[in-house]
Description:
A: mainly beta, 13-stranded parallel β-sheet, 4 helices, 38 strands, B: 11 helices
Amino acid sequence: MKWILCFFSLQLFSGNLQELIRNAKPFEIVNVDSGVYREGMIVIDKPIILKGIGRPVIDGSKQKNVIKITSSNVTIEGFEIRASGYSDIAEYAGVRIENANNCIVRNNIFKENVYSVYLAKAENCLIENNDIHTVSNREATSGNGIHLWNSKNTKIVNNSIEGHRDGIYIEFSGDSWIKGNSVKHNIRYGLHFMYSHGNQYIENIFSENQTGVAVMYSKHVHMLKNRFEKSWGHASYGLLLKDITDSVISGNVFFGNTVAVLLDAANRNRFYNNTLEKNGWALRILGNSEENLFKRNQFISNFFEVTTNSEKSTNDFKNNFWSTYRGYDLDKDNVGDQPFRPMKIFGLWVAKFPELVVLLGSPIVEFLEIAERVLPILTPINLLDSAPLIRRPS
Amino acid sequence: MKTLAWFEFKETIRHRWWLFYSISLFLLSSLILYIGSSESMRANASLLNLVLLLVPLFSLIFGNMCFCESLPFQEILIALSVSRFQIYFGKLVGLFLALSSAFVIGIGFSAWIFWSDIFLLLLIGILLTAIFLSIAFFLSATIDRKELALGTLLIIWLFFFLIYDILIMQIALIFGDYPLEIPMFIMIFLNPIDLARILFTIQLDLSAMMGYSGALFQKYLGGFFGISIGVIALSIWVILPSFFGYIFFQEKDF
Amino acid sequence: MNSALSIVNLEKKYGKQEILRGIDLEILKSSIYALLGPNGSGKTTLLKSILGIVKPSFVDVLAVDLSTVGYMPQQPNFPQNMRVFELLDLIIILRKKPAIYLDYLLTKLDVGNFYKKFIRELSGGMKQKVNIVQAFMFEQSLFLLDEPTLGLDPHQTYVLKGLIKERRYSGATVVFSSHIMSEVEELSDVVALIVEGEIYLKNSPDTIKAMGNFKTLEEALHNFWDEKI
Lengths: 394, 254, 229
């Protein structure tokens, strides 16, 4: 009976969503029929479930927020939400959730929004199964796919995000759970943490973003089983760690990035079981990064394995597999009998004088490597894997 | 000149060294493509180094050898009132066609077997053949003593292939505090082997690894525009030595 | 003009070494002219200078029509990997003249049985035959032959001498260098003795012999040689 009533009211008020919402009672399910609703600046200020039937389109006509949620316990699902407004001073989104908890944004398509989903001071929200894409040209005039500010305990699951500035941006927000998202072609970072502690991201794919994931000024971040690929360009990184401590990077795959992992003032992090394959540089460790542990990772066919710009290293390498290791294993314990020095003299020079990359592929580089193999003393830095693996760990 | 070039071409492809060159290119490139089939990037880099090593070396030595061997016959040609221009450039063109066809056959055949895309590599190899034949002709025309010419050729090869890169390295290590992009960029153009390599690696998109200093290279040597610039610069490397060689050849006594 | 070739004051230096010093030569049409002299005296350089194969350091007059010259270099070194007929074809194309004597020479010198062989497979004598063919197969008015009988057997030498005489009688001029006095005496109308880059003596063989009542040219020249030293 209620459903019929709803349907009836929908017929009546078709074309005016705001009216529909105004008339809805708290905790009501408001079904919205298919069609194009050209009205932005919709405000949802009561706990309702707004549900699109046959994927209705809400077009904000580039005016401010398309939908702004100011009440807790709001659910939006089944819509196509597009064309939020652009402003130099305000950040307008397809869906903006502000000072509200327990909201759900699910199964929507977001198109051509500056910001798509924006959470400010929101807790316990779920953003799931959304298809979020736009076409941004310039970093300055574009916004983020999913933006969290001061929002705790958010779950971001199985979304697909393309073409924003940052795919997912997380600032002053803790305890997020980010899983199974596919984040591609964003013009700055796929995923970007600022001052956000205790977050986890698992089993995501970051592909062809300028930089896959940038984690900055954060602690206790868990980065597990993600795939970072094809971040290839002048300043591109698979994973950029800036001022990160006590985090775990484990079971990830880094493939085809200019720099797979950059450590800048990153301390006491643990890298386990990652695969770094066909990158320009597998690891770039700046001198201000200390006491990181690298264990059982696989370094395969990278142009440079490890470079650092400091004379000493307190980072520890153990039981990694290096495809360029040429040692032997007489006692057959799958651990090479000589230590491996992943840092080559040419790598060091290139780190200091980037112009030298013009010699990449020159026979002189091969000669240097041979010389180093014969005379290990030529390698300037005491950075070594004392027990390199002979076979790839399974 | 067409007659002479064609004659030279026929004469050269019957040379056993021509066959040796072509077969060794085929075998070595096949070996690289076979071993590196899982790692196309490294295989491409190795293939490039094979071309950068073998093509200049062989073109220099073989060019010098053919030039010296044919001097007595050139007396007859001059007596037939064939101009020295025709003799010199006919021989150069014929040799170039013969050696570059050996190269295309050798590399091309193995690429055909292993389905590798090697258009740019072929282009580079052909240009390097022309450049180093041209240098060989220049030296053969200027230096009369055969052993001296051969020794000089080997030094020149070693210089372009290896010593030049050591110099670049030294310069970077000594003057690393100054901005070096533009000097490096210029230095690259002064060594055809380095220029060829950069052209190739940029097209493989390795310029990303050059960081911001790669931007300059990417801008001027990337894409179709870059290939055009590179081909023009390498063509200058073909024209200048052969032209100066011809000036000496005009006054040469047999 | 009644001369086939005239040279006034031709000099050639390699660095400080003077190979030819002021050579004057006037060679009449329809004559055979022999250049004699010890090794290193400059005979070959003189022939090459006439052809432009060697560039003279200085010359006042060098009048010669190169479009109608047949030249036999000493010790022919043809492209190794070509066949005899391919080589001759090239020369015919470059000469832009019909090779009217080709068949005649091939038969006379017995070239037919190695006509299709590679040059690298030929013996020295065979190569010299090819050398004769390439020089004599056209109708030329001047022949420059650098030690043409070197490496030929007596029969071939005989054939070559016949060719030289034939051409001379049909109006051509032949200049050749040689060490062999008997053939010089037999063939030449004029002999020039070159010593250290200068023409020391220039006359007909008979006149030279008459100058001191010598029986042979060899004897006469030997005598002059001693005098000079």
